[in-house]
Write a structure and sequence with these properties.
By secondary structure, the protein is mostly beta strands. Helices cover 13% and strands 49% of the residues. It has 1 helix and 12 strands, in the order αββββββββββββ. The protein is elongated. The chain starts with a helix and ends in a 7-residue tail after the last strand. Keywords: Signal.
């Protein structure tokens, strides 16, 4: 029993030494974030902004997790209107920019005539999950959730 305990402690000590000698990986990555959200035109349009920080952003995917409809999109980078490639899916859409959006820019996504379950509902929270794809990663990264409170419906 004593020998088994000593062998176990020796093995643990050797493992600890090997881990301590292995170099630590140095990876720094800063993702864009959802920075603002709200309504326009008395609640008819929903919008949110994504602040690009760190690496340039190539694609944004927005997942509307309620039964959501909209009439179209307006996309701005800074104050300039842009027309990325738009792919609509079930309860989501993906924006692919011709050139990656550089650091320190803000992307504003306006969802025109935004409706939940076919109507403009008053006083509800509408969540949008936002994901980004970076050219250097080649993988999708969660950027945050934009929660938009529609006007009306009283207070909580």
């Amino acid at each position: 029993m004593k020998k088994l305990l000593l062998n176990g402690l020796a093995a643990l000590a050797m493992t600890s030494t090997v881990v301590a000698m292995a170099p630590a990986a140095q990876a720094v990555f800063t993702a864009a974030t959802v920075s603002d959200a709200g309504v326009l035109r008395s609640g008819q349009d929903h919008f949110f902004e994504v602040s690009v920080e760190g690496d340039p952003l190539q694609r944004v995917r927005v997942q509307c997790i309620t039964f959501h409809e909209l009439d179209g999109l307006e996309i701005f980078v800074g104050d300039k209107a842009v027309e990325p490639s738009v792919n609509y899916g079930f309860e989501e859409f993906t924006l692919t920019f011709a050139e990656p959006i550089p650091t320190d820019e803000t992307i504003r996504i306006v969802m025109k005539n935004s409706r939940v379950r076919g109507t403009i509902n008053a006083g509800i929270d509408v969540p949008y999950r936002v994901y980004g794809t970076y050219p250097n990663l080649g993988a999708e990264v969660p950027l945050g959730t934009a929660v938009i409170r529609t006007p009306g419906g009283g207070s909580r």
